[in-house]
Amino acid sequence: MHRFSPILSGHLWTIAPTLRHRFRPRRAPESEPWSTVLEDEVVGTLRLHGRYRAHPGADTLVILVHGLGGHAESAYLIDAAIAAEAAGRSCLRLCLRGSAGSGEDIYHSGLTADVHAALRDPKFGGYQKIWILGFSLGGHVALSVATEEVCDPRVRGVAAVCPPLDLGAVQTWLDAPGRKIYREYILRELRRIYAQVDARGRAPTPAKLVRRARTLYDWDSMTVVPRFGFQDAQDYYASMSVGARLHALRIPALLLASKNDPMIPGRQIPALLADLPANLSIYHLDQGGHVFFPPGLNVGLGPAQGVAAQALDWLDAHAVSL
């Protein structure tokens, strides 16, 4: 794909791996179903789901968090699970609430409660270290966890691949006419999740009305805003965007992004990160697209090849010790 222009290459690296996974699915390391419960003040008891792989003798658990409309079987999460297995780490592919098709609830870009619920599971009590590796929205969640005062002390570091740092800017970017293919892909997956929530009687707005949404702004206005009590979509974007809170990072964090990402305004990232905290490392790459990069890419973060494997090498070298 290096033969194409940078912009076209970004599109190809975003679309082609997803299509390839649809027709020739990648197989994750053998894992078992995982679930836990948490109490939400609005909807009550929620059950979270995921896939857990306990690597023999591992003292580190890697929690993988998917992007908007994704789930535990998304191609990039499977690739990351393969990298964790090769590195000798246990792995939880966490499904954010409702993403597994359970109809439990909806989520948003700043919601960290699901990660904290997973951290509280006694099943993971034996791990000395926990790393969080998130992709797209999941990367935003990982960075948000790293800014919070109350967090499991075993969480030693986080890594974010192609995260949306300014939610309002990303919404404007994706709602532009030229990005309809990506917007419709996201909305299709969100409609699937929302229909299941509506079937359980937990939807804040009837699904028949929400199906009319043709922009992410309208979607957020009809779903996230009433469900989580924001004043409006702008309030949601302004209050939840992690880019303005990165100075509050409490643990080492890695950010990997592509300049040619067609779903995130990647070339705007330097302006958002003009005053970097010392514990944040950023690699703004010339290759790749949205959450997918050449499999043999070496960013210079360690001996392993591939972005997910390199992120794990970085966490192994930089994550804080107790």
The level-1 CATH class: Alpha Beta
Radius of gyration (Å)? 18 Å
How many H/I helical runs?
12
- Biggest sheet, open or closed, and with what strands and sense? 8 strands, mixed
Helix content estimate = 25-40%
**Class computed from helices, strands and strand pairing:** alpha/beta
Question: What is the H/E order?
Answer: HEEEHEHEHEHHHHHHEHEH
Distance between the termini: 43 Å
What share of residues are in beta strands? Answer: 15-25%
Q: What is the chains' assembly state?
A: single chain
* Contiguous runs where pLDDT drops below 50 for at least 5 residues: none
Number of domains: 1
Q: Report the strand count.
A: 8
Here the CATH topology equals Rossmann fold
Q: Mind telling me the CATH superfamily name?
A: Alpha/Beta hydrolase fold, catalytic domain
- Average per-residue pLDDT, rounded, comes to 93
Please list the strands of the largest sheet in the order they lie side by side.
1-2-4-3-5-6-7-8
Q: What general form does the structure show? A: globular
Characteristic terms for this protein:
single chain, 322 residues, alpha/beta, Rossmann fold, eight-stranded mixed β-sheet, 18% strand
Summed up:
The chain has 322 residues and is of the alpha/beta class.
